[in-house]
Design a protein that fits this description.
Blueprint lengths: L3 E2 L2 H21 L6 E7 L3 H17 L2 E7 L5 H13 L5 E4 L9 H7 L11 H8 L10 H12 L8 E5 L6 H10 L3 E5 L6 H5 L4 E4 L17 E4 L3 E4 L7 E4 L4 H4 L5 E2 L6 H21 L6
Parallel strand pairs: 1-11, 2-3, 2-4, 5-6, 5-7, 7-8, 8-11
Antiparallel strand pairs: 9-10
Helix pairs in contact: 1-10, 2-10, 6-7, 6-10
This protein binds NADPH dihydro-nicotinamide-adenine-dinucleotide phosphate.
Length: 297
């Protein structure tokens, strides 16, 4: 049986339309237009593409963007000064620091300086800490993991007591998605480069999240029949017969795994569009939080 394909593009489009409407309504009622500042340091081409996509998405839903580009030689002090300035700017509701930062910069310190009310990427240690603790609520949840949870909900997946396996333990995807799955009452195994027998682990999964950055690593015989497979990976592989000379593939061997899985996300068009939709949602939420009294730390 062929898996049901989860169309992240369609779900994201619907969420974006809802956000656009809510932004229009608040502006009409005299509330400030939500604003997102993007901070891009250096000249990594992929980072430039991502920031451009995020700014375009903001524009489409009526969120104002405030782009800041610093050279690869920017000092720690220069980046920190910019963050402090954005923290004070009332037009800026969300601050996004595009990762990875150049190696000489202290990423942890920079992310920790962002006002948690403006932490729309959800990477501030307070937000991540709250995510990891029972009974605590983060102000913002990291965008890719949040998008994965929305996709699972859309697919009608019952996570209560389900066995979930997460491939990858990065700060951006693997670890926060594992925390969200635990909060949703799944039983979670997190695998990584030192895991002894990956296929033996993944074959146990009712829900398998692949976030390793290894092209088509997850094969059909790694997947339990009927499992829900969410492919986060975005890998560029050579494809000489295409106009660009390359194509994007996920961490899952889509063509073979779709014959075993019950539900699967494609790459592109699965998790990727959800990440940007969640960023917009978090930015709107930041503007709404600013409308109210500041939440006590
Ligand atoms: P990282 O490189 O930060 O983390 C990769 C994780 O996978 C690590 O935990 C690593 O283990 C593990 N890993 C790597 N190789 C293997 C292996 N052979 N076997 C088992 N585990 C392995 O990547 P990210 O989490 O940032 O991204 C993962 C993928 O998701 C990438 O393809 C990225 O492009 C994509 N991505 C997509 C997004 C989207 O919106 N669609 C957003 C963000 C990322 P260890 O910890 O031991 O090193």
């Amino acid at each position: 049986m062929t898996a049901r394909i989860l169309d992240g593009k369609a779900v994201a489009a619907r969420i974006r339309a809802e956000i656009r409407q809510r932004v229009e309504e608040r502006v009409k009622s005299g509330l400030p237009r939500p604003g997102l500042a993007t901070v891009l340091v250096g000249d990594d081409p992929a980072s430039h593409v991502y920031v451009r996509m995020k700014r375009k998405a903001c524009q489409e839903v009526g969120i104002e963007s405030f782009p800041h580009e610093l050279p690869a030689t920017a000092t720690q002090e220069e980046v920190e000064d910019l963050i402090m300035q954005l923290n004070q700017d009332p037009r800026v509701h969300g601050i996004l620091v595009q990762l990875p930062l150049p190696k000489h910069l202290d990423e942890e310190r920079i992310l920790g300086l962002i006002d948690i009310h403006k932490d729309v990427d959800g990477f501030h240690p307070v937000n991540i800490g709250r995510l990891a603790q029972k009974g605590r609520e983060p102000l913002f949840v990291p965008c890719t993991p949040a998008g994965i949870m929305v996709l699972l909900e859309e697919a009608g997946v019952n996570l209560e007591g389900a066995k979930a396996v997460v491939l990858g333990r990065s700060n951006i995807v693997g670890m926060p998605v594992a925390l969200l799955l635990i909060r949703a009452n799944a039983t979670v195994t997190v695998c990584h480069s030192r895991t002894r027998d990956l296929p033996a682990e993944t074959r146990q999964a009712d829900v398998l999240i692949a976030a390793v950055g290894r092209p088509e690593m997850v094969k059909a015989d790694w997947v339990k029949p009927g499992a829900v497979v969410i492919d986060v990976g975005v890998n560029r592989v050579e494809a000489p017969d295409t106009p660009k000379g390359y194509k994007l593939v996920g961490d899952v061997a889509f063509d073979e795994v779709k014959e075993v899985a019950g539900v699967i996300t494609p790459v592109p068009g699965g998790v990727g569009p959800m990440t940007i939709a969640m960023l917009l949602k978090n930015t709107l939420r930041a503007a709404e939080l600013a409308d109210r009294e500041r939440v006590a730390l």
